[in-house]
UniProtKB/TrEMBL annotation:
Assembly and binders: Homodimer.
Organism in which the protein naturally occurs: Xylanibacter rodentium
Binding-site list for ATP: S29, G30, G31, V32, D33, S34, S35
Name this protein carries in UniProt: GMP synthase [glutamine-hydrolyzing]
GO terms for MF: GMP synthase (glutamine-hydrolyzing) activity
Protein task: Catalyzes the synthesis of GMP from XMP.
Gene behind the chain: guaA
Catalytic activity as recorded in UniProt: XMP + L-glutamine + ATP + H2O = GMP + L-glutamate + AMP + diphosphate + 2 H(+)
GMPS ATP-PPase domain boundaries: 2-190
EC number in record: 6.3.5.2
This protein's UniProt keywords: ATP-binding, Glutamine amidotransferase, GMP biosynthesis, Ligase, Nucleotide-binding, Purine biosynthesis
Length: 344
């Protein structure tokens, strides 16, 4: 019978035995998995762990500084690298989704390695890989659907060994471990976010301006999901509580936010599409934004989330009124398969 408390005790002891006094490098992404892996290692070996957090410029609004702040509060030894200039320069004019992913993956490895080389005497590379990540990469047909970007191709001369303390866990177990470690709830319940960031949510080429527009739309959407509370009872309430989501409970009903009810959500900028609109007396000819929200347990399959109409109406109004360059909002009602969660 699996328990987060015994997982933490056993894993911390195992990590101490495995790593000893060696220095360890870990790439942080801001996501749950790498953050939990970092806090576990930090508990085992303290400042012998150095974390690297690369900002490729396509994170969500204020994400780099917010997450850096969280990491510092957790006592992690983190190096934050703003490499956005390089990524934007290398992506300029590139429109093909796979090529965008390849460039981001390659640049990421380059930037990460340059930092890793500065950490002299490091013996290990730690990663927040979880069980479903490993299943998804064991693709039987060998067909690349999307080249997922991960840290790879580390400097040969460093001879790093791989350390993956979460490799047997599922996402809900990782979240329980995070709670057991006392990590803040907003870090633990964060939705998954793709390595290439908003680049796979902007159709066509990437510019700083498009990223800014999408960040603003996405921020309105995500804040709306967090603010909108739903009351659940019966089976639905039990499922939420069983997953360990801390929810206020009254008269057998639990209150959770829409954000905590779904697996993942984000806005997509359809920047290769323009449509006509009207603002005051003026004609507009601008880009639509598509909103995506799915329920899932492991991202291998996913259903579109049936968000309440009043919520969609409010968010749509707010995006169109506040985000310049967007004059239409659509809601994506496709499930995976045959669609994927991300648009690119
Ligand atoms: P798709 O779009 O393939 O996404 O249905 C499945 C899940 O994976 C995330 N995703 C990525 N995660 N690097 C990652 O670490 C990537 O390159 C990447 N691409 C997609 C996606 O957000 C969803 O949770």
């Amino acid at each position: 019978d699996w328990s987060a408390a015994s997982f933490v005790d056993t894993t911390v002891a195992e990590l101490k035995a495995q790593v000893g006094d060696d220095r360890v490098i870990l790439g942080l992404s801001g996501g749950v998995d790498s953050s939990v892996a970092a806090v576990l290692l930090n508990r085992a070996i303290g400042n012998n762990l150095t974390c690297i957090f690369v900002d490729h410029g396509m994170l969500r609004k204020n994400e780099f500084s917010d997450v850096m702040h969280d990491y510092e509060c957790l006592g992690l030894n983190v190096i934050g690298v703003d490499a956005s200039e390089k990524f934007f320069a290398d992506l300029a004019g590139v429109t093909d989704p796979e090529q965008k992913r390849k460039i981001i993956g390659r640049d990421f490895v380059e930037v990460f390695n340059a930092e890793a080389r500065k950490i002299t005497g490091a013996k290990w590379l730690a990663q927040g890989t979880i069980y479903p990540d490993r299943i998804e990469s064991l693709n039987i047909t060998g067909k690349v659907i999307k080249s997922h970007h991960n840290v790879g191709g580390l400097p040969e001369e460093m001879h790093l060994q791989l350390c993956e303390p979460l490799k047997w866990l599922f996402k809900d177990e990782v979240r329980r471990v995070g709670r057991q470690l006392g990590m803040p709830e907003h870090l633990i319940t964060r939705h998954p976010f793709p390595g290439p960031g908003l680049a796979v949510r902007i159709l066509g080429d990437i510019t700083r301006e498009k990223v800014r527009v999408l960040q603003d739309a996405d921020d309105i959407y995500i804040r709306g999901l967090r603010d909108y509370k739903v009351r659940l009872s019966g089976e639905e309430a039990r499922r939420v509580l069983a997953a360990g989501v801390p929810a206020a409970m009254t008269d057998g009903e639990v209150e959770v936010s829409l954000y905590d009810q779904i697996w993942q959500a984000g806005a997509v900028l359809l920047s290769t599409v323009r449509s006509v609109g009207v603002m005051g007396d003026e004609r507009t000819y601008e880009n639509p934004v598509a909103l995506r929200a799915v329920t899932s347990t492991d991202a291998m399959t996913a259903d579109w989330a049936h968000l309440p109409y009043d919520f969609l109406a409010k968010v749509s109004n707010e995006i169109i009124n506040k985000v310049r360059g967007v004059n239409r909002v659509c809601y994506d009602i496709s499930s995976k398969p045959p669609s994927t969660i991300e648009w690119e």
